[in-house]
Amino acid sequence: MFGTVDREMPVHQGRKARGTKGQIVSLLRYSPMSVLELAEHTGIAGSTVRRHLDVLMRDGIVVQQPVKASVGRPRFLFSLTDQGSEHFPRNYAGLVTRLVSEVLLLTPDQTSQMAGNDLVETLYDSVLGRLIDDYKPRITGKNLLERAEQVSSYMYLEGIDFQVRYSAEISPETEEIEMYGLGMTARYEDGVIERTKFLLGELLDAKVSIVETDHLPTVNILTYLITK
Q1: Which residue among 13, 28, 119, 184 has the highest number of C-beta atoms inside a 10 angstrom radius?
Q2: DSSP one-letter code for 206
Q3: Per the confidence metrics, is the pTM higher than 0.85?
Q4: pLDDT tens for residues 51-68?
Q5: How far is the C-alpha of 45 from the C-alpha of 47, rounded, in Å?
């Protein structure tokens, strides 16, 4: 997606407590990555990523493992240790509570008329609608970046993890940013991608598309391009 990764891309930190190491840890919570991949997804220079990884390995948060390459030297992938996973648990409580609440609101007649997939679809749509109703009035940022950061913060409370970054292409006429959806399986058929696009579009009042070059079935990270 980027011509070179050994230069700093403008990254908005969002939750300030996260910082650069926090961004790296957030990405590694969902998938092992190389220095190159971490640099691409954070917009941080590869040499800077490597220095942060050294500190995280020293602290026992991250471990590196060699992976055989078809040619040349093996490359290294970085992942969280058990200690690292314990320090940075995933927050699913909010989303689980919403799902349980929606189940309890269903009447026996509704559940008896639905097959398994139909029930799941109904629950997804109900939760989506309530998220939009609950949070859209609270998104009051002056520009697209501020609103995206507010969405990221609110969704984190619900167990939905996004990171926000300025887009590589910035135009004076168009506001454009990227949001990474972490932990989201890259499949169109289950409706998660389209629902996420709808959620972000409604909350941000903006056009949302997925960056196809970052759509990798083996990596649970999706990049959404937000344009106003």
Answers
A1: 28
A2: S
A3: no
A4: 999 999 999 999 999 888
A5: 5
